[in-house]
Design brief:
The chain folds into three domains: 84 residues, 3-Layer(aba) Sandwich (Rossmann fold), CATH 3.40.50.20; 61 residues, Dna Ligase, domain 1; 179 residues, ATP-grasp fold, B domain (D-amino Acid Aminotransferase, Chain A, domain 1). The chain is built from twelve helices and 17 strands. Strand 13 and strand 14 form a beta hairpin. Helix 1 crosses helix 10. The chain is globular. The structure holds adenosine-5'-triphosphate and magnesium ion (2 copies). It is an enzyme of class 6 (ligase). InterPro entries: ATP-grasp, ATP-grasp_carboxylate-amine, ATP_grasp_subdomain_1, PreATP-grasp_dom_sf, PurK, PurK_C, PurT/PurK_preATP-grasp, Rudment_hybrid_motif.
Length: 359
């Protein structure tokens, strides 16, 4: 079986790494010449919406998936005419646009922060009158790692905020004073089998995910699974779906979803019986899903910007290093480490060892 992946970054690379033991082969479609998945897969170097490249990909592979949600809808449409593309196009269309995804969350009875659509400066003023400040102005599409967002405090100049996000269609969101940020990695196969990983608690720094810790028997797990199940079933979803939440007391407010494998699920590579990458592949191939049970107490630390002291990291027991083969650059995710320990205390101690190396 050959799988086509739109996008050739680290998520595609880790999908390929998980797929080889299952006897799978991969071809990535990715415009960048130095795509970090390319050494592990066939590489068609072209724009995602290049009809000839898409035709070539469709001839080479048996089914197609993707590693990011900003894939042009036209690409998914063209590929979908000749072979299965998962997750389905409706999931992509919803998840790539913050307004669509938040509207759908609410329609399905899933709470979110209050939000308003913003098309222009007048709309921003209206939104602020409706929601109050502080609030966050976010571009509807293409944002990641906190890019395309502007926090607006009381008294701030609204015109400046509107300029800062590039005067494109946006949503304004009330700022949530959350207790924690958590995410659920859910998976549904072609024939409708579903599985859910334990919630991860996520800590961000400068808008970029820095630490994800697997939570054991958290009291919010049933609600998160219920919300994820509603979304999977509504979309007739196939593959891994990640939903990020703000936890406020007993409530979970959905922040966003990603129709793909997700950074907050990287701990599953060594921290769960079956990784999110393997389960995504099993789901799109309609194979039985693997167990999502955690192995010990696991966490993941992102390596951001500079190349770390890899010798020191590998010198730590129970630390697993994943470098993506990407050139270091400020704010760029170039790898991660997974830690797995027998107890919460040992996990915390190991995480502070890692912090000392990364400082
Ligand atoms: P990602 O890299 O996860 O795709 P993104 O650029 O799509 O990020 P968000 O997830 O919307 O952006 O926001 C990034 C982070 O900013 C959140 O994880 C959270 O820490 C903070 N944040 C975003 N929106 C809100 C909000 N309404 N209230 C409080 N904090 C928020
Ligand atoms: Mg996002
Ligand atoms: Mg996010």
């Amino acid at each position: 079986m050959k799988i086509g992946i739109l996008g050739g970054g680290q998520l595609a690379r880790m999908l390929a790494l998980a797929g080889y033991p299952l006897g799978l082969d991969f071809v990535v479609l990715e415009p960048a010449p130095d795509a970090c998945a390319a050494p592990l897969a066939g590489h068609i170097q072209a724009a995602y919406d290049d009809p000839a490249a898409l035709e070539q990909l469709a001839e080479l592979v048996d089914r197609v998936t993707y590693e990011f949600e900003s894939v042009p809808a036209s690409a998914v449409e063209q590929l979908g005419e000749s072979l299965p593309v998962y997750p389905p196009a409706n999931a992509l269309a919803t998840a790539r646009d913050r307004h669509h995804e938040k509207t759908l969350f609410n329609e399905l009875g899933i709470e979110t922060a209050p939000f308003a659509e913003v098309h222009d400066l007048a709309g921003l003023k209206q939104g602020v009158a409706q929601l109050g400040l502080p609030a966050i102005l976010k571009t509807r599409t293409l944002g990641y790692d906190g890019k395309g967002q502007q926090l607006i405090h009381p008294g701030d100049e609204l015109e400046a905020a509107w300029q800062a996000v590039g005067q494109v269609p946006c949503i304004l969101e009330g700022l949530v004073n959350f207790d924690r940020e958590v995410s659920i990695i859910a998976v549904r196969s072609v024939s409708g089998e579903m599985a859910f990983y334990p919630l991860a608690e996520n800590v961000h720094r400068d808008g970029i995910l820095r630490l994800s810790t697997c939570l054991h028997e958290d009291s919010h797990q049933p609600l998160a699974e219920d919300y994820a199940r509603r979304m999977l079933e509504h979309l007739g979803y196939v593959g891994v779906l990640a939903i990020e939440f703000f936890q406020v007391g007993e409530h979970l407010l959905a922040n966003e979803m990603a129709p793909r494998v997700h950074n907050s699920g990287h701990w599953t590579i060594e921290g769960a019986h079956t990784s999110q990458f393997e389960n995504h592949l099993r789901a799109v191939l309609d194979l039985p899903l693997g167990s999502t049970q955690p192995l010990g107490h696991a966490a993941m630390v992102n390596l951001i910007g500079d190349l770390p002291d890899t010798k020191a990291l590998l010198g730590l027991e129970n630390v697993h290093l994943h470098l993506y083969g990407k050139a270091p650059r400020p704010d760029r995710k170039i790898g991660h480490v997974t830690v797995r320990e027998a107890s919460v205390d040992e996990l915390q101690a190991r995480l502070s060892n890692i912090d000392n190396v990364l400082q």
